[in-house]
Structures are given as C-alpha cells and as structure tokens.
Design goal:
Elements: H1 7-15, E1 19-23, E2 44-48, E3 68-70, E4 91-93, E5 114-116, E6 137-139, E7 162-164, E8 185-187, E9 208-210, H2 219-226, H3 230-238, H4 251-265, H5 268-282, E10 284-289, E11 300-302, E12 312-319, H6 328-341, E13 351-356, E14 364-370, E15 375-376, E16 384-385, H7 386-404, E17 424-429, E18 435-438, E19 442-443, E20 455-462, H8 466-490, E21 493-495, E22 517-519, E23 527-535, E24 541-545, E25 558-561
Parallel strand pairs: 1-2, 2-3, 3-4, 4-5, 5-6, 6-7, 7-8, 8-9, 10-23, 10-25, 11-14, 11-23
Antiparallel strand pairs: 12-20, 12-23, 13-20, 14-17, 15-16, 17-18, 18-19, 21-22, 23-24
Helix pairs in contact: 2-5, 6-8
Length: 562
C-alpha cells in the first residue's frame, strides 16, 4: 500500500511553513505522511485527534528545529526514544493517549518548559525527568500514578511552578516537596492521600493548592481543604498540623501543650460530629430530575441523515446556575473554552453548546442538511448560509495567516478543518425550523445565554462515540457546580441595570463590562439537572441523560440526589 500524502503536508512543503497542524481522523487510517519528516525548518507540529495513529517512527528525531510538539488524542501506546533528540523542544503535549510510560530520553530535553501527559495510563514517571532543569509546567493528571518520584521533588527543578497530578492513586507526598522553591500551584485532588506533609508550608511561592477528594486523617485539615482555604492550610501546616509542632519544644511549651491536650479531650467527640456536618456543607450538590418529574422537558429527535456526519448527541437541562453576579458569566464561558481545548481535544472529540432554555422552542430536530441550503444566524453575525459562513471564515483565517506569517489562527477559524470533505452539515433545529446550533462551529445568536439566563439547555455532539458525549457532559456539569458554589460563597455583586449585558454562549465572543452594581446573595449553590430524551425518527429512545450510569463521579466533594 502506498504511503498516504496529506494535503496539509504538501501545502507546508510548498510554502516553506514553520508550523503544521493536522487534526481529526484521516481516511487513510492515520498513517503518517513520510514527507512530514522532510520539514526540517518546522518549529511547531500538532497531530491531534488521530485516534488510529500507528506510531511516529524514527524520523521524528530529525525535526531538530521543533520548539513545540502536540500529539494529543492520537491513541499512542508508546513514544519513540528519538524524542530525546529534539534538544530545542520547549512544549510537549502527549495528553489523551494510551501511554503507560514515558521514555527516559525525555531527560535529554534541556529546554523543555511544559510537559502535558494527562489522561493516559501512566504507572510511573522516568527519574530522568528530574534533569529537565527548565521544566515549569507538569500535568500528569488522570493517570494511574501510585506516587510522585523523588526525582521530581528535588532541587533539580528550580523553575517548576505548576504541578498537576489530580485523579491518580498517589498515597503519599514526601517532605521533599519543600525543595520545589518555585512551586506556585499544586493540584493533588482525588488521590489516596491520608496526610499532607508540614514541609509543604516551606514552599515560598505556593499560592494555590487543591487536595479535595482525599480522605485525610486530620478532619480539621480536611475541612480547610474542602473549603479551598489555601492560606489557612499553609498556616496550619506551618504550625505543625494536629498540634505536632516542628522541632523540639522546651519544658514550658510541653506543659502548655499537655494542658491543651487535656482540654481538647473533653470536646473531641463534638469536634468529630461537627466535622461530619461541615463535610456535607462543603460538598457540591446536584439534584437529578427524571423525565416523569419534569414534564416540560424538551425532547430531541434524530434523523438518519446524521449517521455519516456527526451521529451522536446528548442533551440535558440545568437550573439554578447563577450567571448574573459579578464575573460569573465570564468565568462560565472561559470554563467552556477550556473544556473544548482539554476534554474535547480542541473539538475533535466532541463539541459543547449552551443555550438559554427560555429561547429554545421545542421539540428539537437533530439533522444534517446540504451546506448550500442550511442557514444560521451565528453568534455576533447576520444570517448566512452555512457554506458561505465557512467560506467567509476561511478567508478570514487566510488573512490572519498572511498578517501573522504563521499557520495558527484563533477563534472559530481553527475548527474549520473538522468540516473538510463534508457536503452535509450537522445542525440542531427548533420547532420554527430555525437552526440554533451548527456543530462543531457555532451556536445561533437566537438562543445565546445572557446574565439573566437561569435555565440552560446543554448539548454535546460527537462523531466519535456516545460515551464521549456523556463524559464531556459529566465534566461540564461538574465544572458548572464548582463555579456556582464559588459564586455563592463569594457573594459577588450583581448587575441590576435595565439594559441587560448580553453575552454570546460561545466563549470567543467579546464581553461587555457590567454596569451598576449592588450586593446580592444566591439562595443556594445547588444545581438541578433535568433529563432530556433523544429519540429516533420513529420515536424510539436512543439515549436519555443523565441515566443511572451517568454522573457517577468518583469525587468525594459531590453529592448526587436522584
């Protein structure tokens, strides 16, 4: 079989580009175009969403000019040792693969500043990683790590400022963490830690820590952790934690400590009961209502036309989200953007759309229609045919490339390639035959969310699998619960102006400043999630979300009421 020739590679060769981005599954089975290794001047290479990628091959080591390499969502099971030959590499992203180990050759990357290896199956990290003296950002979250190697908690990484190892199996954090003098952010949430070493307080620049979801022995410390009280946690650890102290106390201090211990015994039982109550208060609460309990729920009917275009869709309704106070709406839109980049693999795995339920006129139809006849009013734009919108966005993208002399573009432009080769485009249509969503590109201006929005209709579509839709929806709802709790606890100011600040539900839209402000308080941070049924053209059930198997989050700080 002849080696495939990717048009992106051919164009990069012809134009002498220094950047190459290839996203999404390939009809050739994701076998690499060997001409890629001839791009000797290449400085940025991204190959993402190539779920069937067989491997990288030894030729990768010849791309000595590379400064950033993104290999996200490619189904990779191993990385070639030739990665160590990329001496100038500063960013390496191998997240969302099936890696069980990282090559020791990474220790030769003297310029490496950021390593993203989250969402894999890593059982350990190579000790040689401790030689990467310029490493500043390390993300190994969502793996199977039983510990953090001592080589990482050593003076050899003076610039390490962000360390994320959430959702692993880490049982112990060594006192050597105090050697990370540049550490600013540490995320070890949802692990198996029972204690936090007092030495953590010796990190001079530490500003943000997250130990939620760990079953700590010290219940007082656990309350602080669940309340995200970073300063209180560090002060508590600095004092020794649980009254242990740091060093030997003199005789008078010992006597005082004994007296305090005697007094504490009389209230120890009450403290234990109080801690249980505080744990419940600190938890995020999600209440799930079934279709039978919410008769006004919008239904979605799916036509056979989407089978070969974008066949999977999951929807639900969320009530109780506070978007009016302060920057609540801005935070929500930024969180949606981050989910698109991370969990959704830059929309190659799935796409999120959020709508104001009051503006959604059901029942809805999920269909695929010819691009030249499909019309939509995109966010911040006038009504246009989908084919014309894509053509217009492509022209804007080309103009951006010329001006910036690079391949990367921003906003909606970077998702255009996901529609390459498709004559019919997917769309979600309301009862008035108006398109309210055009995945994976944009929503309609008709149903955009505003500060006044209290009921949200959430939609996740994918060409990969139904499970991908559900996992993304789980992540979205979890993030919404966290944001709502933050808004509630901080009691931000609320805009009461008659002129509502309207913000599009696509996070690339510009945000207007809020106006007259006054203090407000949300009644409760609790969110209610209502089921939405998705049926086929004959009315047969395809999926209902959330079902009993959905939202089964392995997180201690969340309570699901069904």
């Amino acid at each position: 079989m002849a080696a495939p020739e990717w048009p992106e590679v051919g164009q990069a060769l012809a134009e002498g580009r220094r950047e190459l981005v290839v996203r999404g599954r390939r009809p050739e089975g994701d076998e690499l175009d060997p001409r890629l290794y001839g791009l000797a001047a290449l400085q940025h290479l991204e190959l993402s969403g190539l779920a069937a990628l067989r491997g990288l091959g030894p030729g990768l080591g010849g791309l000595r000019a590379l400064r950033s390499l993104v290999l996200s969502g490619d189904g990779l099971r191993a990385l070639p040792p030739e990665l160590g030959d990329l001496g100038g590499l500063r960013l390496l992203d191998v997240s969302h693969n099936q890696l069980s180990a990282l090559p020791a050759a990474l220790g030769r990357l003297a310029e490496l500043g950021s390593l993203k290896a989250g969402h894999n199956r890593l059982l350990g990290l190579p000790p040689e990683l401790g030689r990467c003296s310029r490493l500043a950002h390390l993300d190994v979250s969502d793996n199977l790590l039983p510990e953090l190697p001592a080589a990482l908690l050593a003076p050899g990484l003076p610039l390490l400022s962000v360390l994320s190892a959430a959702r692993n199996r880490i049982e112990q954090l060594g006192g050597g963490v105090s050697d990370l003098r540049g550490l600013r952010t540490l995320d070890l949430s949802d692990n198996n830690l029972s204690e936090i070493p007092c030495e953590l307080a010796d990190c001079p620049k530490l500003k943000e820590i997250n130990f939620k979801g760990n079953k700590l022995k010290d219940k007082r410390l656990e309350k602080m952790v669940n309340g995200c009280q970073t300063k209180s946690i560090l002060d508590y650890l600095k004092a020794g934690g649980r009254g242990k102290g740091r060093g030997k106390a003199d005789s008078s201090e010992k006597s005082e400590n004994k007296e305090k211990a005697r007094k504490k015994k009389s209230v120890k039982r009450d403290d234990a009961e109080e801690s249980d109550g505080m744990e419940d208060l600190n938890k995020l609460v999600l209440r799930v209502l079934h279709v039978s309990e919410s008769p006004c729920t919008v239904s979605v009917k799916v036509t056979p036309n989407v089978k070969d275009v974008r066949p999977y869709i999951v929807c639900c309704i969320v009530e109780g989200m506070q978007l009016r106070p302060g920057n609540a709406l801005k935070r929500f839109l930024m969180a949606q953007t981050k989910l698109h980049d991370d969990v959704c693999l830059k929309r190659t795995l799935a796409t999120i759309a959020t709508h104001d339920l009051q503006l959604v006129k059901g029942p809805l139809l999920y269909d695929a229609r010819p691009s030249h006849s499909l019309k939509i009013t995109p966010l911040g734009r006038k009504e246009v045919k989908a084919a014309d919108l894509v053509r217009q966005l492509q022209m804007e993208a080309d103009e951006q490339r010329k001006q910036k002399k690079r391949q990367n573009v921003s906003g909606l432009h970077k998702y255009l390639q996901l529609l390459n080769g498709k004559e019919n485009f997917p769309c979600l249509v309301d009862a008035e035959d108006c398109v309210i969503s055009f995945p994976p590109i944009t929503n309609s201006d008709k149903t955009k969310i505003r500060k006044s929005t209290s009921q949200l209709f959430l939609e996740v579509t994918s060409s990969a699998s139904l499970q991908a839709c559900k996992e993304v929806m789980d992540s979205l709802i979890m993030r919404m619960a966290e944001l709502n709790k933050f808004t509630f606890e901080n009691q931000e100011q609320e805009s009461l102006s008659g002129d509502e600040t309207e913000v599009a539900s696509d996070s690339t839209a510009a945000l207007d400043p809020t106006v007259d402000q006054t203090v407000t308080k949300a009644a409760t941070p609790e969110l209610t999630v209502k089921q939405v049924r998705v049926v086929d053209i004959d009315g047969n059930l395809k999926v209902v979300y959330p079902a009993k198997t959905d939202l089964n989050l392995n997180v201690n700080c969340v309570t699901i009421i069904r």
